[in-house]
Amino acid sequence: MLVNLEPWSTLARTGYHPARVDKWLRVVTLTLALPALWAAGGSPQLTLAIKDFVAMPITGLADGRGQTDGMLARVNSLREEPGGANRLFVNDLNGPLYIIERASRKFTTYLDFNGRDGRTGLFHKLAFETGFAGGFTSFQFDPDYPRNGKFYTVHMEDPELAGSSVPDNAHVPGLNVSGYSTTTPIPTPGPIQREGVLIEWTDSKPSNATFEGTARELMRVQLNTRIHPLGDLAFNAAARRGDADWRVLYIGCGDGGSGESRLAIRMNPQRLDTLVGKILRIIPDPLEHPASSTTSANGRYRIPNDNPFVSMAGARKEIWAAGLRNPHRLHWAIDPANAGNNRLIASSIGLHTWETVNIIHKGANYGYSLREGNEALQADNKTAALPGEDRIPVRISDTSTNGTVTPTYPVIQYPHLPDGGDAIGSGFVYRGKALPALRGKYVFTDISTGRIWYADYADMLAADDGNPKTMAAMHAIRILWRDSGDAPEAGKRVFNTMFPIVKAAYHARGGKAPELPGRGLVSGDGRADVHVAVDGAGELYFFSKTDGIIRAVTESIVN
Ligand SMILES: [Ca+2]
Ligand SMILES: [Ca+2]
User: Fold this and answer.
1) Which ligand is nearest to the CA of 358?
2) Which residue has the higher pLDDT, 232 or 44?
3) Residue 99 and residue 33 in contact, taking contact as beta carbons nearer than 8 Å
4) Does the pLDDT of residue 402 top 70, yes or no?
5) Which of 279, 362, 479, 539 has minimal Cβ neighbours within 10 Å of its Cβ?
6) CA 158 to CA 127: how far, in whole Å?
7) Is residue 227 over pLDDT 90?
8) Which ligand is nearest to the CA of 87?
9) 463 CA distance to ligand 2 middle (Å)
10) Ligand 2 centroid vs 454 CA: distance in angstroms?
11) pLDDT tens, residue by residue, 139-173
């Protein structure tokens, strides 16, 4: 089902703004003014049963005071190791990359990125203590990992800190850093607080639980602030050896907080001479696709010749798509019945108004910081109706443009309102076997409230129609908690959000915040910080930084 969304432009024109009214008024406003964004009656209710899978080792503080450091274990991604070894790799933003043996659920710390202030990990300058995605942000396996042992990581550094940016191998004797050197930071206009670092690792013996081999820094991107970093990494899951997209890496690069600034850096997500606020596409291995690509400026990776801006003077050739605030989660959706339906999907966190799911197209411009969701974004950071002629400049730099483009709009969006949330999390089109009711559906979360929804993937493809008003309908998912001995509310086992489940586990593990650490406009006191992940078979997991628990989704119930 598609829905027609014409919500807040009218309200914005009358002075309404969500950040400036209290929750009560927002509830009323939602009821009066927001059309059917969510599928209403008649649509069957989907409930997912969850069961604790593992409790991550606690790396945060239980005192409940901080925003990010009060989360018990800042698990940020879970991926199954390719090759059938039945191991899951999980990173914690505070530093560790763990291997979890699926059968025994035994944890091994494979690498630890945290070498700050005398810690024994790899990076002296790891900036992990502030920013929701600060620290060891993400990792991804090379599609040829079973043969080559390669994987990629992104972490954030504070260039002002003392120490080296070469990995410190004192506690990883198998890591040979004799040939390691850093790269010149790729410049971003404006003041710089952080750098996002992409590294390729080659484990010469992937079968054991220790690292032995080499590492290469591929790129280092300057970031204006500590938020919205260089983020998720994704390979086209349908690409096979010999295909043009084989081993071609897509990277979500946040805007570094630039787009909401009142300074000149506000245009950084639109500027094609900088990497922030973009989706990037590179070939990490200099030996791959040599005939159809060129070597990057720093010599560490290659750039495909069919990237959209390779011939535009002044533009960065790495850019695949532009105009995104914080596209912090990427997913290659594969339709096994029709390869023409395969799409790259990016979840992008909104400013004050709209959380969005975007289908990423080559060369497309998603509008930020001139658009938020399917509305115009004004200089005062409020949204307004789209202009009659919906075109924005193709901006090369602060002073030069090259024609205009019509922005591309989300296929799903939800507001900062009680039934919505504060910050969109990850999402995946379900392709496993255990949850038949979810086949062909995209499952996604809101980070702070712990809400979970699905949309029909077919609706998302249909909503990708060039019409800013049409969106895929969102369907709320309920959660059945099987661990009834720990039920957070007596006798209750079915929940509308993950929040009470996370809250119970957080307190059971010693967390001291009365609700949960942090806060959000919609979630109020506390952030559930819930994401969804998939394993190699496509089965679902929900994980939370706040309680540090990874839960397996075991059953889908339709009623
Ligand atoms: Ca190894
Ligand atoms: Ca549309």
Assistant:
1) 2
2) 232
3) no
4) yes
5) 362
6) 5
7) yes
8) 1
9) 4
10) 17
11) 999 999 999 999 999 999 999 999 999 999 999 99
